[in-house]
Structure to design on (91 residues):
């Protein structure tokens, strides 16, 4: 496992937004599983993303669900392009 690296907070944000974008509406638990993080850490990251407009909190049948915003999807797209750029530089 020498090539594995610790995820940055930006990697985690991208993983969260990507998980939400795949499902359209996601619960906190589903996001936690998809991002491979404990629920308490996921909640902190989700709250950060909501407060900065990357995802939106929606109440459905009395339960909180999350949806990616246009701003969040733009972040995800740019993040993936930058990651590819840096991967090409490392080769």
């Amino acid at each position: 496992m020498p090539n594995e690296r610790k995820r940055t907070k930006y990697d985690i944000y991208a993983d969260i937004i990507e998980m939400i974008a795949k499902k359209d509406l996601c619960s906190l638990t589903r996001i936690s599983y998809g991002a491979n993080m404990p629920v308490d850490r996921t909640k902190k990251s989700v709250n950060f993303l909501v407060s900065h407009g990357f995802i939106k909190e929606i109440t459905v049948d009395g339960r909180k669900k999350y949806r990616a915003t246009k701003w969040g999807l733009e972040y995800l797209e740019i993040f993936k392009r930058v990651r590819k750029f840096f991967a090409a530089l490392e080769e």
User: Anything to note?
Assistant: Residues 9-90 form a domain with the Arc Repressor Mutant, subunit A fold (CATH 1.10.10.10). The helical segments are 9-23, 28-35, 39-51, 70-90.
